[in-house]
Amino acid sequence: MSHPMFKLAHISDVHLGPLPRLSIRELASKRITGFVNWHRNRRKHLFGDTLDLLLDDIKAKQADHLAVTGDLVNLASGMEIQTAAAWLKTVGDPLHTSVVPGNHDAYVPGAYEKAMRSWYPYVRGDEAPAEWQEDKRIFPYLRIRGQVAIVGCSTAVATPPFAASGFYSSRQARETVNILRAAGDAGLFRVVMIHHPPIRGATSFYKRMIGIRRFAAVISTGGAELVLHGHTHLNTLHWLRGHMGPVPVVGIASASQGVGGLKPRAAYNFFTIAGRQGAWELKAERYSLSDDGSGVDPEGFDILAT
């Protein structure tokens, strides 16, 4: 590959556990359904040491940047949000770690604001105020790292019980187009981060992203070289029509998924970006938890032409 190279790791759906003790007031909401689901299903297959194995492997490969596409927590209680903030500090400096929120990070009304305030260093753009501002819109944000433009979008909104959908607004779409065009004019490789898969039919109706057509228009008119998402807990590759050609849309399994579950074992994507505008080279590799859960193994790779 041409030099210089930029190495980007991608994880999602961390779902940090275990659940803290919740008050009756905290459970008197949609959280009660998530609480029951955690104890019946998630806690059996989501393990913290699994996440540590992935992060250690990413560190060993000397990634330049880590992209985290949402669902850091489970029920978005105050204690979970604080725990996630502390965890982010152990993962890496905000300069080298970018986060977008998922539906679990906005599980109930008010949770999104608390999470963004707590995680602000990891969700602020390069030109955003240094300190959190209550009335300041965060997304979309732009971070420029080397020859790469990282664009963070949010689909995180509080939803009724038994719903996990996301929403991508027209305001956010307009601003994303402007960011992508400017980054393209600057000759940068554009990576868009979003939690819900922006692909029709990629997930069930109650988990869908509202605004899929709007997002597709953003990519086709603004341009991008890579889209990263989470939410489905699956390793997937789709394509959207871009300004200059097809754009890969890549999903990843939950970073905390242990062996023996119905969903794929924990994994991360590792991208190596090189070249220049009009001649980008993108190598995409995936590494997943080993069969016995004791380590991380390569699962394969694709060369995605851009």
Walkthrough of the structure:
By secondary structure, this protein is an alpha/beta fold. 26% of the residues lie in helices and 26% in strands. It has eight helices and 14 strands. The strands form three sheets. It has a six-stranded mixed beta sheet. The chain has a six-stranded mixed beta sheet with strand order 4-5-7-9-11-10, covered by helices on one side. The chain has a two-stranded parallel sheet with strand order 6-8. The chain is globular.
Helix count from the secondary structure assignment: 8
The unreliable regions are none
Topology pattern, helix = H, strand = E: EHHHEHEHHEEEHEEHEEEEEE
Structural class: alpha/beta
Number of DSSP-assigned strands: 14
**Helix share, percent:** 25-40%
Mean pLDDT: 89
Largest sheet: 6 strands, mixed
- Percent of residues in beta strands? 25-35%
The rounded distance between the terminal residues' Cα atoms is 14 Å
How would you describe the shape? globular
The radius of gyration computed from the alpha-carbon positions, rounded to a whole number of angstroms, is: 18 Å
Strand order of the largest sheet: 3-2-1-12-13-14
